Amino acid sequence: MQARIVPIDSHHDQAICQIIKSVGAEFGAIGDGFGPSDAEVLNMSQHYCATKRSGYFIVEQNGIVLGGGGIAPFAGSAECCELRKVFLSSTARGLGIGRQLVAHCLQFAREMGYQQCYLDTLHTMSGAIALYEKLGFEHLPAPHAGTEHNGCDVWMECQL
């Protein structure tokens, strides 16, 4: 599958919102405390900008959005970023696209000068957790102070 990774643009907003919400529902990430309920999901392109040391990237094939993922400062930290809202449509899973997307995000984080990358997720997202482990993320016993997603039950971090 020939997919490309591009920075988000406003014309991606509706498609990625739909993917984030449907995948969130598929894995039980519904309501307050979960990323799909964050207000930014409605207009992702307005919330990520490299001048703020953040970026959100879309995976697309033949103009069709397959998913996305991003990096943003974690709780205002200069050294720690957060891997945010990595969601892929069901048709894009198991093809190596998630690995490419997360690797792209982590490279962006290094370029922005971050030293660590934090994430939170759900145990039901076992495929994503396995990918994060392969990319160097280690499990944490508890969330970092300042996490916005108190509904998550898996917390991980990697050194960049």
From TrEMBL:
**Listed InterPro entries:** Acyl_CoA_acyltransferase, GNAT_dom, NAT_camello-type
Which PROSITE patterns does UniProt cross-reference here?
GNAT
Alphabetized UniProt keyword annotations = Transferase
Keyword Transferase among record annotations = yes
Q: Source organism's superkingdom?
A: Bacteria
- On whether Nucleus is a keyword of this UniProt record, the answer is no
Question: What range(s) does the N-acetyltransferase domain occupy?
Answer: 3-160
Task: Write down what this protein is called.
Answer: GNAT family N-acetyltransferase
Organism annotation: Vibrio porteresiae DSM 19223
Query: Could you read off the lineage of the organism from its UniProt record?
Result: Bacteria, Pseudomonadati, Pseudomonadota, Gammaproteobacteria, Vibrionales
